[in-house]
Automatic annotation (TrEMBL):
The keyword Transmembrane applies. The keyword ATP-binding does not apply. It catalyses: a CDP-1,2-diacyl-sn-glycerol + sn-glycerol 3-phosphate = a 1,2-diacyl-sn-glycero-3-phospho-(1'-sn-glycero-3'-phosphate) + CMP + H(+). It is a multi-pass membrane protein. This is CDP-diacylglycerol--glycerol-3-phosphate 3-phosphatidyltransferase. One of its GO terms (molecular function) is CDP-diacylglycerol-glycerol-3-phosphate 3-phosphatidyltransferase activity. It is found in: Cell membrane. Pathway: Lipid metabolism; Phospholipid metabolism; phosphatidylglycerol biosynthesis; phosphatidylglycerol from CDP-diacylglycerol: step 1/2. One of its GO terms (cellular component) is plasma membrane. Belongs to the CDP-alcohol phosphatidyltransferase class-I family. It comes from the Bacteria. Its main location: membrane.
Length: 192
């Protein structure tokens, strides 16, 4: 249990705090943004989400720099990302800020890739995240952050960048899932 893995686990432990912060009606009020409002709980949730997402870069940087890359880390890191982003997307659907059908497509891809990783793990192989998967995660994080912030600051100019980036995230998520299965199909083909 090295430092990068501890950071990854801390990201997982931040998820329930994030869910409570955004979902429980604390009645903290909101900020006016032109014709829109940004609940303070969503602002705080966005800040916590961004901090938790940043730990993904931090744990990877430390693991690579100090040669602390482990199979546990290769497994836990993408799992923590999936749990954090999936929880945030579900919260956004509940808040009426994201279409459920897009969230279902994104989460379905995440389950499929996790299933492939579990089949590989059963055969003693660990499949690390691909560059396309990392791009997918980054775009998902940007989308979730913008949607939690009710599209601030783009709401002032009427540019729905949050929802546009969510559509883009869905497209890249589907493509990266296809690419991941294509490159690792041998795992399914050769599994015992």
């Amino acid at each position: 249990m090295n430092l990068p893995n501890k950071i990854t686990i801390s990201r997982i432990f931040l998820i329930p705090i994030f869910i409570i912060l955004v979902s429980v009606p604390f009645g903290w009020g909101s900020f006016e943004m032109g014709e829109r409002e940004l609940p303070i709980s969503h602002l705080l949730g966005a800040i916590l989400f961004i901090i938790a997402s940043t730990t993904d870069w931090v744990d990877g940087y430390i693991a690579r720099k100090y040669n602390l890359v482990t199979n546990l880390g290769k497994f836990l890191d993408p799992l923590a990302d999936k749990l954090l982003v999936s929880a945030a997307l579900i919260v956004l659907v509940e808040a009426g800020l994201a279409p459920a059908w897009i969230v279902i497509i994104i989460i379905s891809r995440e389950f499929a890739v996790t299933g492939l990783r579990l089949v590989a793990a059963g055969d003693g192989a660990v499949l690390a995240a691909s560059q396309m998967g990392k791009l997918k995660t980054w775009i998902q994080i940007v989308s979730v952050s913008l949607l939690l912030l009710h599209n601030f600051p783009f709401a002032f100019v009427g540019l729905p960048l949050g929802i546009i980036s969510l559509y883009l995230a869905m497209i890249i998520t589907v493509y990266s899932g296809y690419d991941y299965f294509k490159k690792n199909w041998h795992v399914m083909r050769d599994s015992k």
